[in-house]
Design goal:
alpha+beta; six-stranded mixed β-sheet
Length: 1643
């Protein structure tokens, strides 16, 4: 009952509100009848007029159209009012019925309460009586209210019904007008339909015309296509004619090209002949020098043995005499060393003399060539200049002094034979060679040409050709042209010297390559292909192959060709153009040309040299060989009935490049092939007239052929591999001569009497060519039932080819029904998968037979044959279907037919034939495997993971099947990812794959999910996973920062934000930070701390901080790579130790020279030991210190050395950021906050460091130049030293500094040589107070050095306490004054001199010639100085006018406003001038004056802010009241109606009414205001609040004016209204407020 009472009470105000809203239509209804009656009269006359004129159409005038439109509008408005009134009446009646129901309910409640009161009174329950009395009183009150409400609603209902009746009456009056309007609408509709019909007719005509035009265009198009077809046909015929002509010319050109190729081939053969000649000459030279080398080796060995024998003999003799043999040997060794030094010095002198002689000879030859004239005959006894030189050298070497000069020839001796001088020269030459064994060893010409020079020595080696050692042998005279010619490639000693020199050079060139802290090891270049193989080459032809070298190192590398092995130099030529520096992954090409001269296998390497070391590419050249094989070794014919014939084919394949003869025989037969060597046939390119050369060439070629035949058995595997030759190799290096097989013998092997079942076809003997194959049929003709087998062999004429064997097996049966395929192989099968195959059964019977197919008992649940019974017709075949569906119980059910280890199933099947005892059987073979995939581990626990990171875990997927399976992880949740290939792929048999499971939670909760892996047969394997998602209270704006490559001691800076977006713990509206399903993280300040790894080059500022909710904290991350101090100390200690060792070694050499005169060796050793001890004890004290000062010179030198040799480094750091609740300021002392390990954030940093090319050597290498505080107008200069540490000169460029900025580079340097230092002068000249910072980039081709320039310009800055620089003095009574104060604060560290200037006192002279402000347009007015006093005194004044403000102090100023007449436009500008030249602030002063204490502000301006020059005379009070007139105030309101469907807010304006505080005595202390005509304004849509009120002194009150357009508002005409505003204070003032309202539809 109490709930019903509450509902009744709540419904009551709602009904009152509805009644108030529903009473509004009566206001509009009063003005409708008059207008409607007038328009009805007009409307009712219109139909009568039309009927009198027999419905003639006439044109309405504009006035009649307007009246018709107004009539229609009134009718629609009247219908709307009728509907609204009807709806209102229905609603009122419903509310009245509800009110009556509530009254009945209240009456019933009163009766029940009265009954309860009687009962309680009888029970004497006073407490209940009091409660029931209160309820009764409340019910009475509610009943009274309901009755009042019923009365009001009844009155409203009656009034509404009367209004509705009036509306219905008006509708009846306007019924004629409505009918006429309907008739007009119908007539208009008919006219529109007629126009539409006419328009349709015109459109149909236009469409017909368009269709005719389309057909005409189509006919034209067909005609044009025919013409184009004819033209195209002509063009095709002409093209065919031209093609035939081109073919004729092409054939002629090809003929010429073939002739040219034949000529080139002949030239190539001639070139090959010449090369063969050179090769044979080289071979002869090598054989001739072998004997000389043997002699020298034997002579040196004998000499060594003789010296050892002499030394042993001397040692024994000294010991026998009782002497010290060791001492004697030491003296002897010292003496030998001195002699060796002397000999080396003499040899050097002789070598220099030899160089002089060679130069003289060259000069003589040049002079002879310059003067080509015949030499005059000279006397027989006169020697040449060459002989004179040799004589001088021999005389010098023998140390024999003669009386005649060495350059002069000796006088002729009488009686001497002619040519004695020549013999003397030869003797001197022999003595010279004897005295110089080194020269003898070097000059092979002298050894071969002069055999008498070694005649006096013991000869232990005998030559192979004894004719060279006979005395009567005449040495071979070398022609003068070939004197200086050396053998090809130089002598062996020259080659050894060259090899040692190249090794030394390479050791200096090769150096290690280190990139990102890793040293490259391995082959610097990868070759593609890795192996160069020229297969099956022909002598005389040229083969070319290209290989690609790919840079496999980390950075740029170089490649240089070294050469090929010595054994390949005559046949292989390498064309390689060094490409220069190659980046990692880049490649270059090498062309290898092979031109064989001999038929022999060759192997070697092509050597290259890279920056990181040498490498080689293997090269192999193989001759043509035979590689024969059979495709099968066993031929199983199966079961055949006696009398049938079966044929199988065996294929003999030759994958080599050499053909041979073959022959198929039985294994028991023997046959001798022709093993005689084929006669060597030489082509015409090797025909020479010299028969001896021909014999030599034939002998050498046969030797090479024998060597190739000996090595051929070891090359059989390679020959087999060469059979797999691709098309590219055939095109490049293997010209194929024959594709087919040449058959020479066709025979049939007669069948053996015992074994006649197997026979071979006709092709059993012949020639098989290179890269070809031949098929030989094997025929099986069973004679008697049983198993038959036989063996065959294949023999070849080439002895290098082994005999091949194969076996033939067959079974002869006499059953009429047989299975041609007795073994059915189902390959590999999976469990629970269906496999089918068709088995064909044949019969040779001439009658139909009934067949029954049976499966063994053990496999009937897994295998079946369908149909089980069938009939096979005579001499035909029958097909039966085999179905195999292996179950998992197959290993237990199959028993002996299934091998559990190998998983092989051999199931015997039986075919029973009617009226036949022996059944026909066949076997089904299958390998049964499982389809299981195993996931390990069986479950994953990712632990705690924040939503801003991801966790990666590896799982293993193992395939237990023998078949490859496709798999895929399907139905993955959005927060899980599996890689690679998104969890899809193919797994091979018995393979285990490693997969990465990446978990990244999206919200904070506990995750329990399963990963489903499906195989291709739709099997599912599940992996259970669980994790806890953590939503940390803080987040980072970036979780990964990749720094740019940063030089040593340079700094790279990155910024990020730590954000606290946790504002509310309401989990229903948004996600809140929490750990899993735990309670939400509390809202409040949250602290963080970055935990940097030790000794890292990372700096984070701030490391610890607190972020308030909704805020973020800026974090600066800096990366500055530096060298470790331990490495610098180690380098410094090593440098000091090297210096100490050098000093000790110098001292030791000095003492050794002093002690050389002492003969005793025993006394020398202890002295050396003492010196070593002294050297070790005299080490510098710096080495014994554990630490070295960083400011020391050694430390700086070591740091510079390591910086120069720095190779680069790449580091990756992961910095954890722990999070805790609370503020760091709230913790007690050093007590740490409680950081949760699960809310940890991680920041990943990529830090590459590189070596700088330019270093800053001044200010300890710092790149930040801070000029400090510099006063504005002054200049500060800093000097910065930079050094070029790169190995080459650098061109410097500088970034452009701000031309208007304070920083200037005074002495830019364009070039900086290597190792030099340059000093840069930088200046800082601030012109104002500014914290300046710029970056000066010194740019080189190797990098950029950034210098950060910082400085603070201290200027004279002050702050003003006035906001907006506008000081409004407000309203003042005329001839009174008011003062306001403000402050200026000196924020600079310098005292400031100031002065205050008013524009009204200082700018009059500049404004004399300007146009008066009231004559200028409103847009051109820029009034700053407004109305001034009539007395000439300034209306504004300020105190103090000038002074000095101390640093950090504030100065108070007072501005006084003293107007002497009434005006609203007093204004002036106050300028704060510093140091008499700089204007710091502009303060605009404003004020207004009134004669009385009241004023009104607001509205649109109606006058100019400039007063007239004439003074308006003041009236006395009486005359003034008489002359008082209304003061206008214009208020314009614009209602913005942008969207017609939505109602816009009303247009509003305000008027301010104020009361001025004054010192004058007045009867009234307040100002009262009131506005009339409020009701009329409300009818026009204006709302004014408040319409009257009072204002205290010194206060203002706002009058709010709002406007909504009424229903009958015409938007084309603005609405105008007026009202009077009266102010009553000390006097009464009346204002006429004009309201102008309009609707704006656009912005």
């Amino acid at each position: 009952m109490e709930e019903d009472e509450k509902k009744l009470l709540d419904d009551k105000p709602l009904v009152e509100d509805d009644t108030e809203k529903l009473e509004d239509p009566e206001v509009v209804l009063d003005c409708v009848p008059r207008e409607a009656e007038q328009k009805a009269g007009l409307g009712s006359s219109c139909p009568g007029t039309e009927q009198s004129k027999d419905k003639q159409k006439r044109r309405l005038t504009a006035h009649e159209k307007l009246q018709a439109s107004l009539l229609r509008r009134d009718l629609s408005h009247l219908d709307q009012l009728h509907e609204e009134k009807d709806l209102f009446i229905q609603k009122t009646r419903g509310e009245l019925r509800a009110c009556r129901r509530r009254m009945e309910l209240l009456v019933k409640q009163q009766e029940s309460v009265a009954a309860e009161m009687a009962a309680e009174k009888a029970a004497n329950n006073m407490a209940a009586m009091g409660r029931l009395e209160a309820v009764s009183q409340r019910l009475c009150l509610e009943l009274k209210n309901e009755r009042d409400l019923q009365a009001r609603m009844t009155a409203v209902l009656q009034q509404s019904e009367s209004t509705l009746w009036q509306i219905e009456v008006q509708e009846g009056q306007l019924e004629d007008a409505r009918k006429s309007a309907r008739e007009e609408a119908a007539a208009t509709k008919r006219g529109l339909q007629e126009r539409a019909a006419k328009q349709l007719h015109r459109e149909m005509g236009a469409s017909g015309k368009a269709e005719r035009n389309r057909l005409l265009r189509a006919r034209r198009c067909v005609h044009l296509q025919k013409e184009l077809g004819l033209r195209q046909q002509k063009l095709v015929e002409e093209a065919q004619k031209n093609h035939r002509k081109a073919l004729r010319f092409l054939k002629a050109s090809l003929g010429r090209i073939r002739e040219q190729e034949q000529k080139e081939e002949l030239e190539t053969r001639e070139h090959v002949r010449r090369r063969m000649d050179a090769v044979l000459a080289l071979k002869n030279s090598i054989s001739a020098n072998r004997e000389t080398l043997r002699k020298f080796q034997a002579w040196s060995q004998a000499k060594t043995e003789l010296e050892e024998q002499k030394a042993q003999a001397e040692k024994k003799a000294i010991l026998a005499q009782g002497g010290d043999a060791f001492k004697h040997l030491c003296h002897q060794r010292r003496r030998q060393e001195l002699e060796a030094q002397n000999r080396a010095f003499e040899e050097e002198q002789k070598h220099r003399k030899q160089e002089i002689v060679s130069r003289l000879l060259k000069e003589e030859a040049m002079e002879d060539r310059r003067r080509p004239r015949p030499e005059p005959p000279r006397p027989a006894g006169r020697r040449s200049l060459r002989d004179q030189t040799w004589s001088y050298v021999a005389t010098f070497c023998d140390e024999q002094s003669t009386e005649a000069p060495p350059c002069c020839p000796p006088p002729d001796v009488p009686g001497q034979k002619p040519g004695a001088a020549q013999e003397q020269i030869k003797e001197s030459r022999s003595r010279f060679y004897q005295s110089s064994p080194l020269l003898t060893a070097i000059s092979s010409e002298s050894v071969q040409g002069d055999g008498s020079s070694l005649g006096g020595e013991d000869t232990l080696a005998w030559p192979e050709i004894p004719g060279l050692w006979k005395e009567d042998y005449k040495p071979f005279q070398v022609s003068k042209e070939d004197v200086d010619r050396k053998p090809v490639g130089g002598t062996k000693m020259d080659k050894d010297i060259l090899a040692r020199t190249m090794q030394q050079l390479r050791s200096g060139v090769i150096h290690k390559q280190v990139a990102s802290g890793r040293e490259f090891r391995g082959c610097p270049f990868n070759s593609k292909p890795k192996f160069i193989h020229f297969k099956d080459f022909d002598v005389g032809k040229v083969y070319k192959k290209k290989i690609t070298l790919i840079n496999a190192t980390y950075t740029i590398n170089y490649c240089k060709l070294v050469g090929v092995d010595e054994s390949l130099q005559d046949f292989v030529h390498v064309d390689f153009d060094p490409p220069g520096p190659l980046s990692a992954g880049m490649s270059c090409e090498v062309l290898v040309t092979f031109k064989p001269m001999i038929n022999k296998d060759l192997e070697g390497n092509v050597s290259f040299l890279a920056q990181t070391g040498g490498f080689s590419v293997p090269l192999k050249c193989s001759t043509k060989k035979c590689s024969l094989s059979l495709d099968k070794e066993l031929i199983d014919f199966g079961s055949y009935t006696v009398g049938e014939t079966a044929t199988r084919t065996i294929t003999l394949t030759n994958t080599g490049g050499l053909g041979t003869k073959f022959r198929f025989l039985l294994a028991s037969e023997s046959c001798e092939m022709d093993t005689s060597q084929s006669v060597l046939k030489l082509s015409s390119i090797f025909m020479y007239e010299d028969k001896g050369f021909y014999d030599k060439f034939t002998t050498s070629f046969s030797e090479y052929q024998l060597e190739g035949n000996e090595s051929s058995p070891t090359d059989v595997p390679s020959q087999k591999e060469s059979g797999k030759m691709d098309v590219k190799e055939q095109e490049e290096g293997h010209p194929i001569e024959s594709e087919g097989v040449t058959l020479t013998t066709i025979m049939t092997i007669p069948p053996n009497e015992e074994q006649m079942e197997f026979s071979l076809g006709e092709t059993t003997e012949g020639v098989i060519g290179p890269f070809s194959s031949i098929k030989v049929p094997v025929i099986f003709t069973p004679i008697a039932p049983g198993k038959v087998q036989n063996s065959f062999k294949v023999m070849f004429k080439n002895q290098q080819c082994p005999t091949l064997y194969f076996k033939v097996v067959g079974v002869a049966i006499d059953v009429p029904v047989w299975v041609p395929k007795p073994n059915v192989d189902l390959k590999i099968c999976m469990y629970d998968r269906l496999y089918q195959d068709s088995i064909l059964v044949h019969t040779r019977s001439k009658a139909a037979l009934r067949l029954k197919f049976e499966v063994c008992k053990e496999l009937r649940g897994h295998m079946e044959l369908l149909p089980e019974t069938g009939y096979i017709q005579a001499l035909s075949s029958y097909s039966v279907q085999l179905k195999f569906l292996p179950r998992h119980s197959l290993p237990e059910d199959a028993g002996k037919y299934f091998d559990k280890e190998t998983r092989v199933l051999e199931a015997p099947m039986t075919i029973r034939v009617a009226d036949q005892i022996k059944p026909v059987g066949f076997t089904v073979h299958a390998v049964v495997t499982t389809s299981d995939l195993e996931l390990s581990p069986t479950g994953l626990d990712f632990g705690y993971c924040t939503i801003y990171e991801a966790i990666r875990t590896q799982i293993s997927l193992c395939n237990h099947s023998l078949l490859p399976q496709e798999f895929g992880f399907v139905g993955l949740p959005k927060f899980v990812d599996i890689q690679p290939n998104d969890g899809f792929g193919t797994i091979l048999p018995l393979e285990t794959l490693q997969l990465d499971v990446i978990f990244q939670p999206t919200k904070a909760k506990e995750y329990n999910f399963e990963l489903i892996c499906k195989s291709e047969i739709n099997r599912c394997f599940k992996l259970a996973c669980r994790a806890v998602g953590v939503y940390p209270p803080l987040e980072l704006s970036h979780y990964q920062i990749k720094f740019a490559a940063t030089s040593l001691y340079d700094t790279s800076v990155a910024t990020l934000y730590v954000i606290n977006s946790h504002l509310s713990r309401n989990s229903l509206t948004h996600s809140v930070p929490r750990i899993g399903s735990e309670d939400a993280f509390p809202v409040g300040p949250t602290s963080f701390e970055f935990l940097l790894p030790p000794d890292s080059p990372i700096t984070i500022s701030p490391l610890v901080g607190t972020v308030w909710p909704g805020k973020r904290c800026l974090v600066r991350v800096a990366f500055q790579p530096v060298l470790p101090s331990e490495l610098i100390h180690q380098e410094a200690f090593q440098a000091l130790s090297r210096k100490a060792e050098i000093k000790s070694s110098q001292k030791e050499t000095v003492t050794q020279r002093k002690d050389q005169r002492r003969p005793s060796l025993s006394t020398l050793r202890p002295q050396n030991q003492d010196r070593l001890l002294q050297a070790s004890a005299s080490q510098p004290p710096e080495l014994q210190k554990e630490d070295l000062a960083s400011s020391s010179q050694e430390y700086q030198l070591a740091q510079a050395s390591l910086t120069r040799s720095f190779q680069g480094k790449f580091d990756k750091f992961v910095v954890p950021c722990v999070v805790a609740s609370g503020d760091t300021k709230d913790r007690k002392g050093t007590e740490p906050l409680s950081f949760s390990p699960h809310n940890t954030l991680y920041l990943e940093l990529w830090c590459p460091a590189v070596a700088p090319s330019i270093m800053v050597t001044s200010n300890k290498g710092k790149t930040i130049i801070n000029f400090g505080d510099i006063a504005a107008g002054h200049r500060g200069i800093k000097k910065v030293s930079i050094q070029n540490i790169s190995p080459e000169d650098l061109d410097l460029e500088y970034s452009v500094l701000n031309p208007d900025g304070p920083f200037v580079l005074l002495n830019p340097t364009i070039r900086l040589p290597s190792g030099e230092t340059q000093v840069l002068d930088l200046s800082f000249s601030p012109r104002e107070s500014v914290l300046a910072q710029e970056t000066l980039d010194i740019i080189t081709k190797k990098g950029t050095l950034s210098l950060t320039l910082m400085g603070t310009g201290v200027a004279s800055t002050i702050t003003c306490s006035i906001e907006g620089d506008v000081l409004n003095m407000g309203y003042v009574i005329a001839r009174e004054s008011v003062s306001l104060g403000f402050k200026l604060q000196n924020n600079s560290p310098l005292p400031i001199k100031f002065s205050m200037q008013l524009d009204s006192l200082s700018s009059r002279s500049r404004d004399q010639h300007r146009l008066p402000q009231f004559l200028a347009s409103p847009d051109q007015r820029t009034e700053i100085v407004g109305t001034q006093n009539y007395s000439g005194q300034s209306v504004f004044s300020v105190v103090p006018v000038e002074g000095v403000m101390e640093p950090g102090k504030a100065q108070d100023f007072t501005v006084t406003f003293s107007p002497d007449h009434e005006s609203l436009y007093f204004s002036d500008r106050l300028q704060v001038v510093l140091f008499d030249k700089k204007v710091s602030h502009h303060i605009l002063l404003k004020g207004a004056a009134r004669e009385h204490m009241m004023f009104v502000e607001g509205g649109d301006p109606l006058d100019v802010p400039v007063e007239s020059l004439t003074v308006i005379p003041a009236f006395d009070l009486e005359h003034r009241e008489e002359a008082e007139e209304l003061k206008p105030i214009l208020v314009t309101l614009e209602y913005a109606q942008l969207d017609p469907d939505t109602q816009a807010p009303p247009a509003t304006r305000e008027l301010q009414v104020g009361c001025i505080r004054t010192t004058q005595l007045s009867a009234k202390k307040t100002v009262e205001f009131s506005m009339d005509n409020i009701t009329a304004l409300q009818h026009k849509g204006f709302t004014i609040e408040p319409s009257k009120g009072s204002v205290e002194r010194g206060q203002t009150k706002a009058i709010s004016i709002s406007w909504m357009p009424p229903i009958d508002f015409d938007p084309d005409h603005p609405l105008m209204a007026s009202a009077l505003l009266q102010l009553r204070g000390d006097v009464k003032e009346t204002y006429k407020v004009l309201f102008v309202a309009q609707v704006v539809t656009g912005p």
